[in-house]
Design goal:
This protein is an alpha+beta fold. It has helices at about 30-35, 75-90, 105-110, 115-130, 180-185, 205-215, 225-235, 240-250, 285-295, 300-315, 325-335; strands at about 20, 30, 50-55, 60-65, 100, 135, 140, 145-150, 155, 155-165, 170-175, 190, 220-225, 260-265, 265-270. The chain folds into three domains: about 15-190, no CATH class; about 195-270, Arc Repressor Mutant, subunit A (Orthogonal Bundle); about 285-335, no CATH class. The protein contains eleven helices and 15 strands. The strands form five sheets. A four-stranded mixed beta sheet has the order 1-5-11-10. A four-stranded antiparallel beta sheet has the order 3-4-6-9.
Length: about 350
């Protein structure tokens, strides 16, 4: 590595051994398993508890490193990596568990500051992700050939600073994802997230959005007891405190895509808002979404909407006579290519 310049040494990464993150408009995506089950701490201070979670047939134990458990804000790194990999898969490009990414791109894409202190916090996040160990029986990979993981693994296997400035600030970072997470991406066990997710500051708001997105994916609403929501959220707060936090979030009404309402019987109802994308973008009707599901069975229809909207923006935001017709034309073209 040249002194001062920090150029990447090509021999560090044999051809085909790494994937370069370069999809600047990649749609944010997260894996289904971590959206469904609490793998990340909601604490804002170092959390060194050993977390255990059992729900139906799923068992999870999350063990921290000396730096504490990986937090839900640390998860931004995984969301960025998953988004890049899925963009490559959809484009027919080769991928790898080892990714090389620009730290600045990561922070801009996840709505983080780019100050010197922000780079230090990013380094701490990498260390917590690599140090947090998970033991679970959640299966990832193709449904016809799932792998039941019963041994411990880290959310990322390793990371290293590949390039840094003369002043020591990281520029490029190499990340090796766990095989468990990489299999989830290759099997497309992921869901699209609103870009507004990264604007949510409270850890519990982010966790509630994940649960809402996972459970309201193909239905208009989802109801859950406060007790079950507390368990699935991973919050360490007593129930009465948790209930107060939920009421505050309901009053603020900040969640993108979804609205929370408290109902009798200690029940929280989550309802999808009418518009699932930021205002200003064309949105297909529910009927068009159903037609898209029929054209491309098994695809995440909201990911298709996001791809179409990105395509529409790149083409100059042309005026549309019918958003439904334009969207379905885009989906039909995708279907024919498939």
């Amino acid at each position: 590595m040249a002194s001062g310049q920090g150029a990447m040494a090509p021999h560090h990464y044999p051809k085909g051994d790494f994937f370069l993150c370069d999809f600047f408009d990649a749609v944010p995506k997260s894996d289904l398993a971590s959206m469904e089950h609490p793998l990340f701490s909601l604490a804002t201070r170092p959390d060194r508890r050993i977390l255990t979670y059992t729900h139906n047939d799923v068992e999870i134990t999350v063990t921290p490193s000396v730096r504490g458990l990986a937090t839900i804000h640390d998860k931004d790194i995984l969301i960025f990596c998953i988004s890049q990999l899925m963009a490559a898969v959809n484009a027919g490009k080769a991928t790898s568990r080892r990714l090389v990414l620009k730290a600045h791109d990561l922070m801009v894409a996840t709505n983080r500051e780019t100050s010197g202190d922000a780079y230090r916090r990013l380094k701490d996040a990498f260390e917590r992700l690599a140090g947090t160990r998970i033991t679970t029986n959640i299966a990832t990979g193709p449904k016809e050939d799932p792998i039941e993981v019963t041994t411990g693994f880290g959310l990322i296997e390793s990371w290293e600073i590949v390039r840094k400035t003369r002043g020591g600030r990281m520029v490029s970072v190499a990340v090796t994802l766990s095989d468990w997470l990489y299999r989830a991406v290759l099997s497309k066990s992921v869901l699209t997230l609103s870009r507004e997710y990264f604007s949510l500051r409270k850890p519990l708001e982010r966790r509630l959005y994940e649960l809402a997105r996972k459970h309201c994916g193909r239905q208009r609403s989802w109801q859950v007891s406060v007790e079950t929501l507390l368990k699935k959220s991973g919050s360490n707060s007593p129930r009465r405190v948790f209930r107060k936090m939920i009421r505050d979030i309901i009053a603020a009404d900040h969640l993108p895509d979804y609205q929370l309402v408290e109902e009798p019987g200690d029940i929280i109802r989550v309802t999808a808002r009418e518009v699932l994308e930021p205002v200003g973008l064309p949105n297909p009707s529910p009927e068009a979404l159903d037609a898209a599901r029929a054209l491309l069975p098994g695809m995440d229809v909201y990911a298709l909407v996001a791809e179409w909207q990105s395509y529409w923006q790149r083409k100059g935001k042309q005026r549309l006579r019918s958003a439904d017709a334009a969207f379905l034309g885009f989906v039909k073209a995708r279907s024919e290519k498939s």
